[in-house]
Amino acid sequence: MSNAVLSINNLQKTYAPNTKALKGVSFDVNKGELVSVIGPSGAGKSTLFRCINRMIEPDQGSSIVFNGLDIVDLNRDNLKNVRKHIGMVFQHYNLVYRLTAIENVLHGRLGYYSTLKGIMGLYSDEDVLKAGELLDLLGLSERKYFKCSNLSGGQKQRVGIARALIQDPTLILCDEPIASLDPQSSKVIMDYLKDITKQMGIPCLVNLHQVEVAINYSDRIIGVSAGSIVFEGTPGEVTEDVIKNIYGAELNDILQK
Ligand SMILES: Nc1ncnc2c1ncn2[C@@H]1O[C@H](COP(=O)(O)OP(=O)(O)O)[C@@H](O)[C@H]1O
Ligand SMILES: [Mg+2]
User: Fold this and answer.
1) Is pLDDT above 80 for 120?
2) Which range of residues forms the domain containing residue 141?
């Protein structure tokens, strides 16, 4: 029996006749796993993440099975339903800065409300309580009613994670979650993502810039180069040759970081 929460098969994305950003990518994300995607700039990592929840449309023939449904085939209504169960965490947080931390967390519930209720901010008492609890869990008890514009980068990202968690997701996708953060805040965020995977049992697929971070935190690492997977294995299997193969000419940049 398969343990896969997400099963990607032959995922292709062509932006223009000469820009094939993904050339047939296949891999699974299983229960209990934190999986990282690494690779040089332009390799196709963000394209991969955006295809998974169809922020961009994959090419015909691609398959992305999530919870037993092929996301590629879904109509708009069913897609909305599936997106409720995929939490997204972004490099630039995507928060509404003039609103408070707790209001931003509640935005994660919007998929569960009618448009009108959502616009009017008519959240249930239960959701408000849950949003507060998640902020407590992420060490933001003192910041619940702060405007997000007044939070540090690391705090903003923790609000972003709380917003993903309140969706009650089956999977969390993080596209460069620590690329805008200092090393200390990055560690805090990665520790939370690891806890979310291991304690809450929600698998995380994370696109990372830093190889060392991927090695320290992942159960499995996927190396992407020029739209194809060129490595898949455990952190222990990431040798110097593997890194050379993934990063090619960008290798010196990576080593200097
Ligand atoms: N909207 C777009 N239109 C055309 N080409 C794009 C678009 N987005 C990305 N690309 C191209 O697709 C390739 C992969 O980009 P991307 O997925 O952003 O890579 P990464 O996240 O690994 O840096 C690059 O060659 C990039 O220039
Ligand atoms: Mg990217």
Assistant:
1) no
2) 4-256
Q: What is the DSSP string of the chain?
A: ---EEEEEEEEEEEEETTEEEEEEEEEEEETT-EEEEE--TTSSHHHHHHHHTTSSPPPTT-EEEETTEEGGG--HHHHHHHHTTEEEEETT----TTSBHHHHHHGGGGGGS-HHHHHHT---HHHHHHHHHHHHHTT-GGGTTSBGGGS-HHHHHHHHHHHHHTT--SEEEEESTTTTS-HHHHHHHHHHHHHHHHTS---EEEE-S-HHHHHHH-SEEEEEETTEEEEEE-GGG--HHHHHHHHGGGHHHHHH-
Number of domains in the chain: 1
pLDDT digits (tens, 9 = 90+) for 85-95: 999 999 999 99
How many Å lie between the centroid of ligand 2 and the Cα of residue 13?
Answer: 14
What confidence tens digit (pLDDT) does each residue in 134-189 have? 999 999 999 999 999 999 999 999 999 999 999 999 999 999 999 999 999 999 99
What is the CA(45)–ligand 1 centre distance, in A? 8
Looking at residue 69, which CATH number applies to its domain? Answer: 3.40.50.300
Ligand 1 lined by 43 (C-beta under 6 Å): yes
Query: How confident is residue 121, by pLDDT bands cut at 50, 70 and 90?
Result: confident
